[in-house]
């Protein structure tokens, strides 16, 4: 068997390197041509689970990755903070109209509430990623001492829960829990409770019998109610018939009353025939009375008038 010559080995190695470079340029050419923007964020809490290369997303869309992490310590105050450098790909974000320069655009987005937050990639592995989102009005943390564009941060969900737990008085909570458990134990040990539980089946049986009796009574009452309702309906029909006949008689009586009233009106009407006849009769009676009164006065003065006449 012939052993490969050094020339053949060298040619094979060069060919492999050439193929690797060609594959890199073919498959990763787009990535290499993407414009990158380096930004920084500072986190107060722990970043355990965050690794270099972790994705940076905006509402789930990958827009960059974590490039570096470090610790900043202020010797005067003893405060420490975690610096996370990120590389963003602005070309993955489309801005309508004429986009401003990247630094100006980022500053505008930060003013509108753009913040960074640590989120869990997986609850099993505990790996973290950086999630960008607009959170107007959120309490942000800003370091402000960097030459790179800074994206403010907000506490993650676990960090918020940890701070809330720190404000809880665990001793008082445990004491309250112990008192509650003691009260439950005292209730469970109460002999009356055991007796009540023993009587529960018989009580439920009595309740079932009572409900059956009530159901029967309700059924009987329902039948009586139906009979009463039928009687009421019959009475209503009778009353309706009586009302109809009474209404007809009342209408006839009113018609007669109208005739009487018309006659009375004709009688008392000054311009009516009856009133005029009565007026003439009264006038004749008045004239006759005047003549009789005149005659009486003359007889009173001269009684011989009765013998002589006029």
Descriptive labels:
310 residues, alpha+beta, 6-stranded mixed sheet, 7 helices, 6 strands, 58% helix, 16% strand, elongated
Summarize the structure.
The protein has 310 residues and is of the alpha+beta class. Among the domains are: 123 residues, no CATH class; 33 residues.
Describe the 3D structure.
The protein is an alpha+beta fold and 310 residues long. Among the domains are: 123 residues, no CATH class; 33 residues. It is built from seven helices and six strands. The chain is elongated, with a radius of gyration of 58 Å.
User: How would a crystallographer describe the biggest sheet?
Assistant: 6 strands, mixed
What's the N-to-C terminus distance?
201 Å
Which parts are unreliable, with pLDDT below 50 for 5 consecutive residues or more?
Answer: 26-33
Q: Structural class given helices, strands, pairing?
A: alpha+beta
Task: Give the number of helices.
Answer: 7
Radius of gyration: 58 Å
Percent strand: 15-25%
Gross morphology is: elongated
Order of helices and strands: HEEEEHEEHHHHH
What percentage of residues falls in helices of 4 or more residues? 55-70%
Q: Within the largest sheet, what's the order of strands?
A: 1-4-3-2-6-5
- What's the number of extended β-strand segments? 6
Average of pLDDT: 75
Write the layout of secondary structure elements.
Elements: H1 6-33, E1 37-43, E2 55-58, E3 61-74, E4 79-88, H2 102-111, E5 114-120, E6 128-134, H3 157-166, H4 170-189, H5 191-268, H6 273-301, H7 305-308
Parallel strand pairs: 2-6
Antiparallel strand pairs: 1-4, 2-3, 3-4, 5-6
